[in-house]
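Q: Structure tokens for this one, please.
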Amino acid sequence: MDAQRLQLKIFVTPDSALAVEPEAFIGVFHRWIKERVLSELVIDVANYLHVPKGPGVVLIGHGADYFLDHGEGRVGLLYNRKRVGPPPEDRLSDLVRRTLHGALLLEREPALGGKLRFASSEMLFRINDRLAAPNRDATFEALKPELAAWSHRIFAGRFDLARVGAAKDLFSVRLTSPANDSLAALLDRMGGPPGPDGSLVP
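A: Here is the predicted structure, written as tokens:
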């Protein structure tokens, strides 16, 4: 994967999206900063809950951000890599591991009382670089073998890939699977929680 500015979103189940007040994530993310919960530098929290179908609450990091995103009118955790990451052959794996790890931490977050759950049967992959990766079929066909390889791994062989969105949108691929395994099982298939990454700290 030559692209560097990668995003992955995993969606909250509809029932648990209603069970947790969005403002609760502001305190959760501040605690993550204070207690250094993540293996990367995170420095601030931004509140965009006033924006309809917007970025929600954002945990801002040095090399990547975590959004409690409300795009498409659906709540989910979106991981946004904004600096040069691992070698090209490791970028998708790292993206998945960091997204799943963040979601698993939220499911286990004491302040949320176990009310939040993610549906592992659907994810949205995007490249935040319209010049390098225009949202068109040619880009999808070029990246499909690599996306299929890690989808096969994470979903244990049962998955579908579909390019979504209009030409003016970010290049986006929706990954779906009939399985709905636990986040822990998916993360284990990808190699477990991510380790330190020098590009994510100054």
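A few notes: The chain has a mean pLDDT of 92. The longest helix spans residues 137-154.
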